[in-house]
Design brief:
single chain, about 350 residues, ten-stranded mixed β-sheet, 12 strands, binds S-adenosyl-L-homocysteine, binds iron/sulfur cluster
Length: about 350
Amino acid sequence: MIGARRTRYDISREELSGVLAGQPRYRVDQVWEGLYEQLAAPGELTALPKALRATLDEALPLALEVVAERTSDRGETVKWLWALGDGTRVETVLMHYEERSTVCVSSQAGCAMGCGFCATGQAGFDRHLTAGEIVEQVVRAARRARDDGRRLSNVVFMGMGEPLANYEPSWAAVERIHAEVGLSARHITVSTVGVVPGIRRLATEALPVNLAVSLHAADDELRDQLVPINRRYPLSTLMDACAGYLQAKGRRLSFEWALIDGVNDRDRDARLLVERSRSLPLPAHVNLIPLNPTPGYAVRGSSPRRVRDFRDLLREGGVNATIRRTRGTDIDAACGQLRATHEAVSASAVVELHPRG
Ligand code: SAH
Ligand code: SF4
């Protein structure tokens, strides 16, 4: 099955040596640097003999084929919908900020976690991605950043899927991104809905990546509804795993909180969140995300005013909180949205459907 498919960014250096059997030794370095430093296809590596370039392009197929590419925010946000080799579809978003350029990658096609407010969760699970399919999203975005006169500086696992439910490939991708694309661990963020065994395992890894936990509710009753995995790993267990991660890594972690009108944006929610955040050895930073509307979830996001008030309540409680700048709402840049709308209606019609700021 998918494990057997080896795409361009799945193969290891050793496997590349095998592909280049019979060629001079230095070719391995040449091709490897071509792939990861020049971000080039073998066919573009003019130092290689022409016949070899063609052979390599064929032997090392790309994993991602562009189905749709959209830009918004005056070119500062680029979103791709890709088809994988078997036709499965996933998304990647590149965001240029003044001080950094961040790519948001998918770790699975779809997601089995079933969070009701999330477009990916609504669509269900297709399959895990391979490490190479994840790494290639980073490489393609890095190349685009370079073409835009920028340098890719950050990777966040906040696209489709739950990275800790696809642990080995996601971690192999992290290691490859670190070692070969050259991003430091502090510029890589893994976001999880709260898969506790995965968090515990992450704490044993050598690379101290940033951990973002999608909390969304600070009491079990509400969290059971918003995030079904909470029934398996309730808040006490999750907070214990978070504390363990902090102790192992000495890094602050962050909580993600999508603000949903009347559901998790009440004063009480802010109070409970302050308590949870401050119960950790280092208080968690809270990222507030105004909820993006999705077709399968009737409740609306909190008003901009309520988002600011909620942030202020957290700050008054001594918790560091920021509001995530929304990007690319007109191109459905939130998790799972481009695919969902691409499958439902024509993308241009969608721009008219929810022109939020
Ligand atoms: N599965 C992982 C990573 C992918 S989701 C996780 O859940 O953390 C990335 C982030 O987008 C999560 O914080 C998730 O809660 C958030 N998200 C999902 N749907 C959203 C929506 N409709 N509006 C705002 N944020 C959303
Ligand atoms: Fe999966 Fe994350 Fe969406 Fe939940 S929020 S369904 S874990 S991608």
